[in-house]
Amino acid sequence: MQYPLRLKFGHHRYGLKVLALGFCLIAMTGCANMSPTGQRALSGGAIGAAGGAVLGAVVGGNPAVGAAVGGAAGAATGALMH
After folding, report:
1. pTM score > 0.90 for this model?
2. Where is the YMGG-like Gly-zipper domain (predicted)?
């Protein structure tokens, strides 16, 4: 399988790790100045998307659809909770 981001040092490929690290850094710094409601909505959406993707894969459905539905439900629930 060909990866679009190929950083190779010796026999090791670091492309996916570099991409994941960059995503984590952006996610951590992007939440610094958010309101508490926004933070709850974002974390609820992320947790819902992860849970929906896992559930979609387990039941034999489409993980992307499960992630979309779970993310929307989690974001709505997180925004409404106090």
Report:
1. no
2. 39-80
